[in-house]
Amino acid sequence: MISLAGRDIVNSWGKFIFTGVGLGLLVGVTLTMAGLYRGMVDDGMALLDNSGADLWVVQRDTLGPYAEPSGIPGDLWRDICAVPGVAEAVNVTYLTMQVGHGDRDVRAMVAGIAAGDSGTPGWPPRLVAGRQITRGHYEAVADMGTGFALGDVLRIRRNNYTVVGLTRRMVSSNGDPMVFIPLKDAQEAQFLKDNDAILMQRRRTEADPALNRPGMPGLLEAVQASQTVNNSVNAVLVRVRPGYSTSEVARNIERWQRLTAYDRGKMEKILIGKIIATAAKQIGMFLIILAIVSAAIVAFIIYTLTMDKIREIAVLKLLGARNRTIAGMILQQSLMLGLFGFVVGKVAATFATPLFPRFIMLIPSDSIRGFAAVMGICALASLVAIRIALKVDPADAIS
To answer: What angle separates helix 2-11 from helix 13-51, to the nearest 10 degrees?
Structure first.
C-alpha cells in the first residue's frame, strides 16, 4: 500500500511538489499568524515585567495607562508612599507619538520616568549599550527597535534629546518601541500647546469678565499660569514591601486615595482581554479561512490525482485489491502531501518571521497543534477522492 502511494507520487511529482509548496506557504502563514498573537501577548507581558511594578495606580474608574487615558495629580505619590505596605511609589507618564530623527520619524511610546536609578520602577531594567539617564532634561534611552544609535539627536515636540543609552525588548502592548525621557520633559511634551494656541487661550482668558472683577487681584495671572503648566501624570507605579499582600495594599490605596489600583493579574486581563482581544478575534477568523482554503486545495489536488488514475484503480479492483487498500493509498497520498506542506511551511515561517516589523513568537506547542491540524485537514480532504475511487467499476479496466 505504501509502495503504491509512493510510486503514484513519483509518477506525478510535479503536481505533488507544486501543490505541497502552495500548501506549505499557507501553513507558513498560519504559523506566522499564530506567532503574531503569541508575540502580542508576550509584548504585553514584557511591558508589565519591565515596568518593575507590583501595582499600577491610575485615575479612578479607568483601565490604566496602557488601555485608556488616565490623569492624576503629580504629588499624590507622596500620599501613596504613606500607605502601609508600600515600599516605593514613582510617577510615570506614557504617550504614543512620532519621534523624529533627521529626515525620518518613528512611532514610539515615550515614557517619562522620575529621577532615580536603574532599579526604580518605570526605568529600563537593562541596557545593551550606553548609560541610564542622569540629567533632568534632554537625555533619552531608546529601544533597539527604533533604529536609533548612541549620540543620535531625537526631536520630541519642540525639544531635542540625545540618546545616551540603548535597551532591548522594551515595547508597548502594540509592539511600538519605547523611548525613555525625564518625567518633566514628558509632561511638557504631553500637555504642551503651540504658541498660537497659548496666545489665543490667553486672549480668551483676558476677555472673560469673571476673571477681571474688582477686588480679585492675581486671579487672572493664576489662571494663565495654570494653562501653561500641568503637573499631571498617567500613573503611579507601586512596589509592595515583602510580606504584604498586593490586593490588600491596592484596597487601602483605593479606599484612602480615591484612585484605582491594579495588581499584576488585573493588568494582564486588561491587556489580553481588552487591548489584544479584537486582534485575537481577527487572527482567529484568518486562521479559519486559511484552514478552509488549505482543505480545498488538498481536496482538489487529491481529487485530480485520483481522476487521472481511474483506469489504474479499476485494474487494481479487477486483480482483487480490496477497497481498504485503495482507500489507504489515497489517504497516504494526502497525508504525505500534508507532511511535505507542513515542512515547507515550518521552514518558511522560521526564516520569514525575523523580517516582520512586529515580534513573532513561534513556540513548539503551536507547531505540534499545527501539524495535527494539517494532518486532520488532509485526511478529511481525501474523503471525496476515496468515495469516487470506491465507486469505480472493475469493468472500466477493459473498456
So the answer is: 100
What kind and span of H or E run contains 73? strand 72-73
239 and 324 both lie in a single domain: no
3-state SS, 77-121, equals: HHHHHCCCCEEEEEEEEEEEEEEEECCEEEEEEEEEECCCCCCCC
Which band of pLDDT confidence, cut at 50, 70 and 90, is reported for residue 127? very high
Mean pLDDT of the residues in the chain = 83
Question: Does 81 fall in a domain?
Answer: yes
Task: Based on the fold, state whether residues 181 and 282 are members of the same structural domain.
Answer: no
Q: Tell me how far apart the alpha carbons of residues 256 and 115 are, in angstroms, rounded to a whole number.
A: 26
Pairwise CA distance, residues 237 & 70, whole Å: 13
Q: Provide the number of structural domains found in the chain.
A: 3
Question: Do residues 139 and 67 both lie within one domain?
Answer: yes
The answer to whether residues 248 and 339 belong to one domain is no
For the question of whether the overall pTM of this predicted structure is more than 0.90, the answer is no
Q: Are residues 214 and 345 in the same domain?
A: no
Burial class (CB in 10 A: 0-12, 13-18, 19+), 53: buried
Residue 51, domain member (yes or no)? no
**C-beta separation of 335 from 302 below 8 A:** no
- Tell me which H or E stretch contains 130: strand 129-130
**Could you tell me how far CA 186 lies from the centroid of its own chain?**
24
pLDDT: which is higher, 47 or 2 = 47
Q: For 113, how many CA atoms within 13 A lie in the half-sphere containing its CB? A: 30
Q: Which domain holds residue 302?
A: 2-43+278-397
Both 120 and 251 in one domain: the answer is yes
Distance CA 329, CA 189 (A): 69
Give the 3-state secondary structure percentages of the chain, helix then strand then coil, rounded to 5: 55, 20, 25
> pLDDT tens digit string along 379-391?
888 887 888 877 7
The model's pLDDT over 223-247, given as tens digits with 9 standing for 90+, comes to 444 544 467 899 999 999 999 999 9
Q: Indicate whether 178 belongs to any domain.
A: yes
R_g (Cα) of the chain, nearest Å: 31
In a domain, 294, yes or no: yes
